C-alpha cells in the first residue's frame, strides 16, 4: 500500500508499505546485482549508509547460484541476510542487451547465457517463477526494453507485446502467491511503461497498464541513449497518466542531477550503478561536484572526502590515505569510496524527503544544483 504524504507540484513524498517494511519515498535503491553491492559491502554496511531497498537481478541470480538454490536456502532475504525490502528486476533488460544472443517470440525470449553459452528460455511465466523462488519484496514485470532509436512501427509492436506479457505476469504471480511452498506469498508486482521517446505511445501504454491496478509502475526504456532533455520531456508527458496513489519508478537513473529533476516530475523510486561503479574507480560525490581521488593534488590532503559528512569513510579516513589505497590497488580503497557514495545518495534522498515535508523542494533543488556546479578550491 502506498500512502501519499506530501506533494509540491508533481513532486511527491510517500510511504510504501511492503511485507518487509515501510519504504520512505523518494528513495534510491542500492544495486546488489548478484545479491551483493560491488565494492565489498556487507548488508550491515548497507544499514550503516542508510539503504532502504536493495535491488537484485533476476537474470544473473537465475544463472548463478540458481533461483531454485536460493529457494532451498529460504529465499534471498535469508540468503544475503537482509531484512529490508528487495526489488528484483525481471531480467528483461539483461536479456534484451544480449542482442546477438537472443530471439524474441510471442511466448518469450530464447537466448544464450553470457557465462557458458547454454540455451535458455525466459518468458513472463518463467520470470515470475524465478522471482517467486527468489522471494523478493517487489517483482518487476517481464517486458521488452526496445533499442534506442527504434522505428515507430517496431515500437508499437513491442509495446503491445509488453502489455500482453504484463497480463501474463500478473496472472502467473497471482497463482504463485497462492502456492503453499512459496517463499513470499505477498510478493508485489510493478508494471513497466515503454514507448521510447514517442510520447503518444507512452501515454496510451500508461493508460492501459494503469487500469490493471498493480502495486506500482515503472518508466522503463529511458537512460538508454536519449538526451537528458528528452528523458525529462517524456516524464513530464507520461507521469500524469500513471496513478498518483501508486509509486512510480524510473529505471536505471541516475546521477544526482537526474534524480533531482525527476523527483520534480513525480518519480518515487530510483536505481543506478553509478555510485558503486564510480566509487570503485576513485570518483566520489560531494555537494560541490564529483572529485577524482586519483588526482595528484590529493596526495597530502588530510581532509575527509567531504567536510561534515557522517559516513563511515569521512568520519575516519583522509583523502590522502584513500588515494594511497587506490593507487596501491588495495580493495579497502574501493570499499571506502563506495561506502561514501551510497551514503551521499541516501542522504540526498533524506534531504529531498525533508524538503518536500517542509514545502521547499524547489528552493532545495536549486541550491543543490548550484552547489554541484561549484568546483573545489585548488
UniProtKB/TrEMBL annotation:
It catalyses: 7-aminomethyl-7-carbaguanine + guanosine(34) in tRNA = 7-aminomethyl-7-carbaguanosine(34) in tRNA + guanine. Substrate binds at residues 89-93, 143, 194, 221. Its EC number is 2.4.2.29. Keywords: Glycosyltransferase, Metal-binding, Queuosine biosynthesis, Transferase, tRNA processing, Zinc. GO terms for molecular function: metal ion binding; tRNA-guanosine(34) queuine transglycosylase activity. Binds 1 zinc ion per subunit. The active site is at residues 89, 271. Belongs to the queuine tRNA-ribosyltransferase family. Homodimer. Within each dimer, one monomer is responsible for RNA recognition and catalysis, while the other monomer binds to the replacement base PreQ1. This is Queuine tRNA-ribosyltransferase. It comes from Defluviitalea raffinosedens. The gene is tgt.
Amino acid at each position: 500500500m502506498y500512502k501519499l504524504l506530501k506533494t509540491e507540484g508533481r513532486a511527491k513524498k510517500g510511504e510504501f508499505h511492503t511485507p518487509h517494511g515501510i519504504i520512505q519515498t523518494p528513495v534510491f535503491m542500492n544495486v546488489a546485482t548478484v545479491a551483493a553491492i560491488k565494492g565489498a559491502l556487507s548488508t550491515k554496511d548497507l544499514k550503516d549508509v542508510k539503504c532502504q531497498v536493495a535491488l537484485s537481478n533476476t537474470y544473473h541470480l537465475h544463472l548463478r547460484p540458481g533461483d531454485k538454490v536460493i529457494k532451498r536456502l529460504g529465499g534471498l532475504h535469508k540468503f544475503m541476510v537482509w531484512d529490508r525490502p528487495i526489488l528484483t528486476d525481471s531480467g528483461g533488460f539483461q536479456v534484451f542487451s544480449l542482442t546477438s544472443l537472443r530471439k524474441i517470440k510471442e511466448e518469450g525470449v530464447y537466448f544464450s547465457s553470457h557465462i557458458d553459452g547454454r540455451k535458455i528460455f525466459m518468458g513472463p511465466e518463467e520470470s515470475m517463477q524465478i522471482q517467486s523462488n527468489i522471494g523478493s519484496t517487489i517483482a518487476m514485470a517481464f517486458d521488452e526494453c526496445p533499442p534506442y532509436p527504434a522505428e515507430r512501427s517496431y515500437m508499437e509492436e513491442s509495446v503491445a507485446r509488453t502489455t500482453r506479457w504484463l497480463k501474463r505476469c500478473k496472472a502467473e504471480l497471482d497463482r504463485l502467491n497462492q502456492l503453499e511452498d512459496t517463499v513470499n506469498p505477498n510478493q508485489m508486482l510493478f508494471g513497466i511503461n515503454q514507448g521510447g521517446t514517442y510520447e503518444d505511445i507512452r501515454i496510451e501504454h500508461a493508460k492501459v497498464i494503469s487500469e490493471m491496478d498493480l502495486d506500482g509502475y515503472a518508466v522503463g526504456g529511458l537512460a538508454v541513449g536519449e538526451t537528458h532533455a528528452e528523458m525529462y520531456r517524456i516524464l513530464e508527458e507520461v507521469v500524469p497518466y500513471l496513478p498518483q496513489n501508486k509509486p512510480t519508478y524510473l529505471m536505471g537513473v541516475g546521477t544526482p542531477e537526474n534524480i533531482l529533476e525527476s523527483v520534480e516530475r513525480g518519480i518515487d523510486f530510483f536505481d543506478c550503478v553509478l555510485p558503486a561503479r564510480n566509487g570503485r574507480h576513485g570518483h566520489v560525490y560531494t555537494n560541490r561536484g564529483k572529485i577524482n581521488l586519483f588526482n595528484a593534488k590529493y596526495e597530502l590532503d588530510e581532509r575527509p572526502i567531504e567536510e561534515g559528512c557522517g559516513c563511515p569513510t569521512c568520519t575516519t579516513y583522509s583523502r590522502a590515505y584513500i588515494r594511497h589505497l587506490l593507487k596501491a590497488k588495495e580493495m579497502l580503497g574501493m570499499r571506502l569510496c563506495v561506502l561514501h557514495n551510497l551514503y551521499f545518495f541516501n542522504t540526498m534522498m533524506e534531504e529531498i524527503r525533508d524538503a518536500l515535508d517542509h514545502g521547499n523542494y524547489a528552493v532545495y533543488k536549486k541550491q543543490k544544483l548550484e552547489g554541484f556546479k561549484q568546483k573545489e578550491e585548488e
